[in-house]
Amino acid sequence: MDLFAQKTWENYDAAGLSRERLETIEQLIPSGVQTVLDAGCGNGAITNTLAQRYQVTGLDFSPAALEHVQTAKILASVTSIPCADHSFDLVMCNEVLEHLTDSELIQAIAELNRCAKTYLLLSVPNSEQLASGLVRCANCGYVFHAYGHLQSFDLARLDALTNLRRMDFRVLGPRQRSFYPALLRFRQHQLGQWFKPDFALSCPHCGGSEFLAKKSILTKTVNACGRLGRPSRPYWLMALYAVSESRKAAK
Ligand SMILES: [Zn+2]
After folding, report:
1. pLDDT tens-digit readout, 99-152
2. pTM for the full predicted model
3. Structural domain count, the chain
4. Which residues constitute the domain of residue 245?
């Protein structure tokens, strides 16, 4: 999670892709909700806008990110939330879970669930092909995901993780096509073309800032064929769960 602790947050999502996400979040929040915890709120792009309609608290483990949050805020990790049980009508967690290790993920889901009184709203990249986001350091050879993603989710995995009744869901954003896995591995390992970050990135192993992204006739051919006939899907997945109901049913 170091990547996000270091990141500068001023320009995060400056392209405005957050508007569609924000509109969908507003559609999914049920009527009657007054208090919202935005767990892993980053620079508050969503938090600050939602605060016009709801009593929102932002939570993030990055002090630099929280500087931009204009609502009530808490400096903490989603894996250990310093709030009482059932404190918020709705707890949401957007584009955070994919950055967690397996054990952090289990802790985070338990914490989000514990702090929610009625609803849990989760948003993640939709069935992301993690291998296609891998970069390889040109200096030391270390391979890692450019955005620090460690997890990939589809709806079934979110349902299983939360073990709650799903009330609604949406897929949204630009459509993505996954690569044929074998062709992708060939392009990366044999041809030396990995994901090319178009933003400042440093290798967590050696601090290098050059990444292997060779171009050739062969990589062009592989890229032209690699996604042919593959299904395309919108980039984000959001799901709304009933917490209180599921809690009553479990008793
Ligand atoms: Zn390196």
Report:
1. 999 999 999 999 999 999 999 999 999 999 999 999 999 999 999 999 999 999
2. 0.89
3. 1
4. 2-127+149-177+232-250
Q: What residues have their beta carbon closer than 5 A to ion ligand 1?
A: 137, 139-140, 142, 203, 205-206, 208
Kindly report the CATH number assigned to the domain that includes residue 45.
Answer: 3.40.50.150
Per-residue pLDDT at 14 = 45
Q: Which long-range contacts (CB under 8 A, 24 or more apart) does 46-52 make?
A: 46/18, 46/21, 46/22, 46/94, 47/71, 49/22, 50/22, 50/25, 50/26
* Residue ranges, the chain, pLDDT below 70: 1-17, 245-246, 248-251
Contacts of 239 (CB under 8 A, 6+ apart): 121, 122, 123, 155, 158, 159, 166, 168, 169
Quote the ligand 1 centre to 202 CA distance (angstroms): 8
- Identify whether 190 is part of a domain: no
The whole-number pLDDT of residue 18 equals 74
- If you measure from the C-alpha of residue 10 to the centroid of ligand 1, how many angstroms do you get, rounded to a whole number? 26
CA 179 to centroid of ligand 1, rounded, Å: 25
Q: Is residue 187 part of a domain?
A: no
Distance 134 CA to ligand 1 centre (A): 13
Residue 245 counted as domain residue:
yes
26 part of a folded domain: yes
